[in-house]
Design goal:
PPM-type_phosphatase-like_dom; 6-stranded antiparallel β-sheet; 11 helices; alpha+beta
Length: 390
């Protein structure tokens, strides 16, 4: 079975620096995902340029089929030399995971990648070889669903040095923390935000180094189908409902009219839930065979708001924890962000006079805009999203 590679990263800049000296590239094609973390020498503009060149060159060359030797040689001949130190390089970590489960890891002078299997960090056996004067650690192995890989720049293991911690947050400390906090429900974005928040606290909000966390979680594909709005042609109701119900995985229906169409076509009753978990969000309903039934535009709008907050750089792990509430918007956001890898939206384009300005063209309707923005958010974290219009 093909695997889904859930990858995300975030960085915090060295205190008083506008540019980050770490750079991450996440490249996807039909066969694999390549993740490159590069840490440029020093900090600021020079480090940013070195890291950007390194990550771009390595990522592009590997994606085009070049080997690691060729990529490293290209970096060595491309990067400018630092006059003070007489060296010119950016450290790097490369993880390539194929949909088949095969994986390749290469590391040069970065802290070792943490590999989490069944909640425990274990060491990946590596071999060293010299490429263009540089000792690169390499490994080839097989991954399984629920494995997680955490790539860190040295800003992570320097966190707290000379302040809260004498020797910094060392690799062993990071490893122990990951094992203590890990659970199968954690997504790559959750783990990234969790570790970065600890680093910020250890630095007392004044990072002494550029700090980056990249989390890669191997997941089984989790499909979710979302039906929003009635089709333009009523004659299509039955066909759309049949296609929607034939989909694998969880099913979500958004909108009162849409719920009534589904209820009628399936011959199933709608049972309204009168528990107002949040007075500003309409209550949910129940339809047999449907995992979540919500109101339309208001719930979609609030769910999009939650999603943007969680995925923003200002978002914290606390924002993800807030999604454990039982109102429709929280449940919808939780399903889309944490419990899915592949999402299909079935969007009806029939006009609802309550939500439209008749002077606006159909393409600008609130409903369609909400779905399109939601799709963009989900795609930004690597989820595969399809939208079908009726």
């Amino acid at each position: 079975m093909s695997l889904f590679i859930d990858a995300s990263y975030e960085s915090i800049n060295k205190y008083n620096e506008e540019l980050c000296g770490d750079k991450v590239e996440i490249l996807r094609d039909k066969d694999s995902v390549i993740v490159v973390l590069a840490d440029g020498l020093g900090s600021g503009v020079k480090a940013n340029i070195l890291a950007t060149l390194t990550s771009k060159i390595i990522g592009t060359m590997l994606m085009k089929g070049s080997g690691i030797e060729e990529a490293v040689e290209t970096i060595a001949s491309t990067l400018p030399v630092c006059k003070e130190r007489g060296i010119a390089y950016s450290t790097f970590s490369i993880l390539q995971v194929f949909n088949s489960g095969e994986a390749y890891l290469a590391e040069f002078d970065n802290p070792s990648v943490l590999c989490v299997k069944r909640g425990k960090v274990f060491e990946i056996p590596t071999q060293e070889r010299e490429i263009n004067g540089k000792l690169v650690k390499e490994s080839r192995f097989i991954v399984n669903a629920e494995d997680m890989f955490i790539m860190i720049s040295d800003g992570v293991i320097h966190a707290g040095i000379g302040g809260i911690l004498n020797l910094g947050w060392q690799w062993e400390n990071v490893s122990e923390y990951v094992q203590r906090t890990y659970n199968n429900g954690l997504t790559s974005k959750n783990m990234t935000k969790l570790l970065l928040s600890v680093c910020e606290n250890l630095y007392m909000q004044k990072p002494g180094d550029d700090t980056t966390v990249v989390s890669v979680k191997i997941r089984k594909p989790l499909r979710v189908s979302v039906m929003v709005g009635p089709p333009v042609d009523r004659a299509d109701d039955g066909r759309v409902v049949e296609k929607f119900m034939d989909c694998e995985g969880k099913k979500v229906v958004c909108g009162g009219t849409t719920s009534q169409i589904l209820s009628r076509e399936l011959g199933k009753e709608i049972s309204t839930n009168f528990n107002y978990f949040n007075p500003s969000i309409p209550p949910t309903a129940e339809i047999e065979g449907i995992d979540l039934t919500t109101e339309g535009v208001l719930t979609l709008g609030r769910a999009l708001e939650y999603m943007k907050k969680c995925l923003s750089l200002e978002g914290t792990i606390q924002d993800f924890l807030k999604l454990n509430k039982e109102d429709g918007a929280s449940r919808l956001t939780r399903i889309l962000l944490n419990e899915s890898t592949n999402i299909s939206f079935y969007v009806g384009r029939a006009m609802n006079p309550a939500h439209q300005n008749p002077e606006f063209p159909l393409a600008l309707s609130i409903k369609l805009k909400l779905v399109e923005e939601m799709a963009e958010c989900l795609q930004s974290v690597g989820k595969q999203v399809e939208i079908e219009y009726y």
